[in-house]
Specification:
heterodimer, A: alpha+beta, Copper Amine Oxidase, Chain A, domain 1, four-stranded antiparallel sheet, 8 strands, about 20% strand, B: alpha+beta, 9 helices, about 45% helix, Centromere protein P (chain B), CENP-P (chain B), CENP-O (chain A), Centromere protein O (chain A)
Chain lengths: ~300, ~290
Amino acid sequence: MEQANTLCHDGKSKGGVLAYLERLETGVNRSGKQREELQSAQAVGNALATKIRKLRCLRDKLRAEVKQRQARVKASTTSVDPDQTVEISEQEVLERKQKNVKAILQAYRFTGLSGKLTSRGVCVCINTAFEGNLLDSYFVDLVIKKPLQIYHHSVPVFIPLEDIAAKYLQTDIQHFLFSLCEYLNAYSGRKYQADQLQSDFAAFLAGPLQRNSLCNLLSFTYKVDPRGQAFPFCARLLYKDLTVTLPTDVTVTYQGTEVLSTSWEEQRAAHEILFCTKPLHQVFASFAKKGETLDMSLFS
Amino acid sequence: MDAGLAEVRALQADIAALRRACEEPLAPREETSRVQKSFQEIYQSDSEGWKSSKDLKSQLGHLESELSFLSTLTGINIRNYSMKTEDLTSTEMTEKSMKKVLQRHRLSGNCHMVTFQLEFQILEIQNKERLSSVTTDLNIIMEPTDCSELSEFVSRAEERRDLFMFFRSLHFFVEWFEYRKRTFKHFKEKYPDTVHLLEGASSHYMGIRSASRPGFELLIIWKIKIDEEGKVSPKLDLLTKVPRRALELDKNRVIETAPLSFRTLLGVLGIEAALESLIKLFCTEENN
């Protein structure tokens, strides 16, 4: 005990370690749990040491590989006749580099935004997609001068380009382009859904699909089962937020004079929810699937 | 144990950097004066069939500045790209003047400290009326791999085969990540005794405690969420640790309502000012 006290002035930790060692020396029986703890700590320590060894090995291997490549490069440029081969390999190197850079510039379209420098400034290309389908692209030609101006563009007139430009163009080009991207991608997505409905699921429609140019107000009459006696429902989809591809307001109504039975009323309500949560063409695809296993009792 | 883990992380970073070095195209790094001289010679003795190197050089310079512009604009730095195409048009399709081509793309690069490798396939079907391009497969490998906030988002992007959302959200995520790191670092430097970053500035929590108030501790948890649509937003929470006696004295239940009050404070002051005001609570007795 005294020993522990005299060493206390060096801090608690020293007294603690000494006490621990003393306990080891006197060979006090450790409980099974203590032994296990020690063993598991050792095991973790060992696993860590092995991992470190493996990683060191891999790193050394890669270092050697990089050194080899560098040596190869040096050899190829310093080996033979300086005048001739240096000239050719320099040319080759530049051409290879140019090819590489050109390829990478092409690859930027996969980020959704790409562009080219022009004599006036820059022409940015915005690509749109919906659910993995690559859709239309639009361009905005910017003139770099104060204030920044849009020289030329292919953005449809119903997209609020001027509003977005007024908000962001002068202060933050990136924000301007990202915001425009949002609007254009959403428009493309809505248009895609409406087009798919018209082309692939025309059989379900009991009349023409009414749509505006922004594709944010759709109205149509449909039957869940195109061949059968299903009741025609009228759907009205409104996308108040122009940056989304799912409607914000959906109303499904029945235009007939009879009162709807409970099962049809349930369906009507369910459809309202469906249109809000799934893309339009997918809703109809699910109708088509269900049609294959339709329960005839619904027609009673 | 900590030293061991730190070494593991350092080794992993080294390995990632070496792998990248192995990917770079073989090119001499230095331009010696000997090479410069031969450029002059090439320019002067311009032979037909070869574009003048100087022209090529300026062309390359132009392309590289385009690249640097795009990299700054998108926040994404693409280092490598290659593509292979496979013609899948059957004879039946050719008769109907249809065409089917499968493109295999491979793309790699980085967004600040995050590196990515993408492999994806695009199926192009051309018939009389239209051309459709669909991404049919997407595989994403990201480094660092231990960022849980990112891995969920990556699987979602792969499932949806949504390249654009992946890149856009990655850019914003990294921006928020860097901002959080800068903010934590700033506070740690300004209030070294009060602010504690147990796992460094890159982690998602910051502790506030002071020797002048033993037993009390505030823990700020700052997560970066990516929602279903790919929108990135910060989510901050406050945890409190308080001695039992203090809880008993807390008649107004300030401690209990602290997490909610914190959210309100964030809305009023913004992130930095809110955090600083909490840190200052622990500093009032120290001389500023």
